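chain below, 52 aa
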Amino acid sequence: MIKTATFEALLNDAIPDGQGGYHFTLEGEKYHLQDKDEVRKIAELHGYIIIY
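prediction:
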């Protein structure tokens, strides 16, 4: 199965936590990020091809 996502859509799912970081959920797994750019790495770990 090929999974794709746009970088913009992934960024929209990074919700500010009120303390300078972000909450991000992908495929039911929850992450706490310090920087929105981390969503790319997480998506790639889940096997996604990122479209810019």
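The two ends are 20 Å apart (CA to CA). Residues 38-45 form the longest helix (8 residues).
thats it, cya
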